[in-house]
Write a sequence for this structure.
């Protein structure tokens, strides 16, 4: 299962205008930038059937190439060792008109920049877009250009164009050489153009990067160029937009690596899984470092893949096992004896099972006899804000990251397989359940969760019926119910865990003393008949009192937040 969009390095479509004494026509052509061996001081050369006039060529060399250089320099890649050749094919329209095309002006700045950056970082670029726009500053500001109507007409006639990148129309209202009428005409044509392709308006170069580069290719480029773990030195605050280019290329790469790998695995895209793993392992070998818990994280992802997909599409060796041995020479003792075993299981096509240790819940309170000052800490641990932060949000994020290719299933086997995979996905991405359970045990836990989630709605049979027919949203509805049930149980379990660890439940003296301190803390809010009540009469009720008090505080907070 692969993306149908074609990607190529250093190739971008541009909309250019062919002017004659009588008429003005636009055409779509392709700019190609490629890295070449540097033989002279000159780092930029032009070739091909299209000529760039001297002013345009100088602008590319003096204004656009330095932006690419600065990006590569900040990524710790020496830009001055690189030289580039830029070429452009003569569009068919120019050939029909029997004229050799000469590029004048700066309207091709954006596609030239994208082609150069793609070549510099070896990042493949989508081939389903066309771009136009003038780069007006070293910070990467993009400004409007002429003849947008003609360029849109040319794009309409070009097969494969799905997106049109253009300058934001309102970005340059103040320019004296632009008439308000011209800007209005350009603004008016955009709704019409949306009937044919996505119109992507940009006022800065950073906004174009997510349109043309896939997140997967950005991650792979960071690995291949060895800036995956680089702490990029950002420019000064005045260059805030330029910094966003760097963030697009470097921010949260570790998190995105696992998200994309998980997405590819769930889709059964073994080619991209292999590509990602190969790039990561070769990178780790180059820097001589075994990534902590790498095998464990990878195994969690594979266990979360539906069984049918795992058996059919993710079977067999994922990468050359010799690379595994090269990587293991950099593992410390713990990783070598444990984590590397998980990694080998996955790389050789064996799903394996996770170890028997449980995840540690750092929020739990150790057993002791807390004083009055500790009560507020206990209240905070079970407050709505804290429960949302440590439990609800991670679970909601895990659900949002789960890929559901179809909302219905074809059989009971497929249904139970998907339920199990989703359950493993939840516990793997929230670290809220024991990891040391094999898949058979996980299947049992998943089905028990399903039964509890639908206990008041017909049980598993009703859930299966919905999954096959999809009357109320099918699998999407079922996974939402499972998520809410899982969230409720984890929150309840957390609260009970915190409260049960406050004191030794078997020590009656501790229970009386703690209840006395609790009543003293709440004294100002209690009526007199309760305030003077002996603590010994409430020792079996202190957990209920705490829950009621915290719940009242949560409701009060919500009330004030509405004001």
């Amino acid at each position: 299962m692969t993306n149908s969009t074609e990607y190529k390095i250093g190739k971008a479509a541009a909309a250019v205008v062919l002017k004659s004494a009588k008429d003005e026509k636009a055409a779509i052509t392709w700019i190609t930038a490629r890295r070449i061996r540097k033989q002279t001081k000159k780092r930029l050369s032009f070739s091909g059937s299209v000529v760039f006039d001297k002013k345009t060529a100088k602008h590319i060399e003096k204004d656009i190439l330095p932006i690419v250089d600065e990006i590569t320099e900040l990524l710790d890649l020496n830009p001055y060792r690189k030289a580039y050749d830029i070429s452009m094919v003569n569009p068919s329209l120019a050939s029909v008109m029997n004229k050799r095309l000469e590029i004048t002006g700066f309207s091709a700045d954006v596609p030239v920049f994208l082609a150069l950056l793609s070549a510099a970082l070896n990042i493949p670029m989508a081939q389903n877009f066309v771009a136009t726009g003038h780069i007006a500053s070293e910070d990467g500001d993009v400004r409007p250009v002429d003849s947008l109507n003609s360029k849109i007409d040319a794009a309409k006639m070009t097969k494969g164009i799905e997106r049109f990148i253009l300058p934001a129309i309102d970005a340059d209202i103040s320019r004296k050489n632009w008439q308000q009428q011209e800007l209005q005409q350009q603004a008016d044509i955009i709704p019409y153009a949306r009937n044919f392709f996505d119109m992507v308006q940009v006022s800065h170069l950073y906004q174009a990067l997510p349109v043309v580069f896939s997140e997967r290719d950005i991650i792979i480029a960071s690995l291949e160029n060895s800036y995956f773990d680089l702490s990029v030195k950002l420019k000064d605050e005045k260059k805030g937009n330029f910094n966003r280019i760097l963030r697009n290329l470097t921010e949260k790469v570790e998190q995105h690596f696992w998200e994309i790998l998980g997405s590819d695995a769930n889709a059964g895209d073994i080619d991209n899984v292999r590509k990602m793993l190969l790039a990561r392992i070769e990178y780790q070998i180059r820097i001589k470092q075994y990534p902590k818990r790498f095998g464990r994280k990878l195994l969690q992802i594979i266990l979360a893949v539906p069984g049918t997909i795992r058996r059919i599409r993710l079977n067999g060796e994922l990468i050359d096992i010799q690379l595994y041995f090269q990587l293991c020479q950099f593992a410390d003792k713990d990783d070598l004896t444990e984590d590397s075993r998980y990694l080998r299981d996955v790389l050789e096509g064996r799903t394996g099972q996770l170890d028997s240790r449980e995840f540690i819940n750092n929020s739990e309170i150790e057993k002791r006899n807390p004083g009055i000052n500790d009560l507020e800490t206990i209240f905070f641990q079970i407050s709505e804000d804290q429960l949302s932060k440590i439990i609800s949000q991670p679970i909601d994020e895990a659900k949002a990251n789960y890929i559901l290719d179809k909302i219905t299933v074809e059989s009971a086997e497929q249904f139970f397989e998907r339920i199990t995979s989703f359950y493993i996905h939840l516990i793997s991405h929230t670290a809220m359940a024991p990891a040391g359970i094999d898949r058979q045990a996980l299947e049992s836990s998943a089905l028990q969760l399903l039964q509890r989630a639908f206990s008041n709605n017909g049980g598993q049979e009703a859930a299966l019926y919905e999954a096959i027919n999809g009357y109320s949203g099918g699998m999407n509805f079922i996974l939402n119910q499972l998520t809410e049930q899982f969230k409720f149980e984890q929150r309840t379990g957390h609260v009970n865990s915190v409260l049960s660890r406050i004191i030794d439940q078997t020590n009656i003296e501790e229970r009386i003393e703690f209840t006395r301190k609790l009543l003293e803390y709440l004294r100002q809010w209690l009526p007199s008949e309760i305030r003077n009540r002996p603590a010994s009469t409430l020792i079996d009720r202190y957990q209920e009192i705490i829950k009621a008090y915290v719940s009242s505080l949560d409701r009060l907070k919500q009330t004030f937040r509405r004001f």
In short: The first strand starts at residue 7 and ends at 9. Residues 390-495 form one domain.
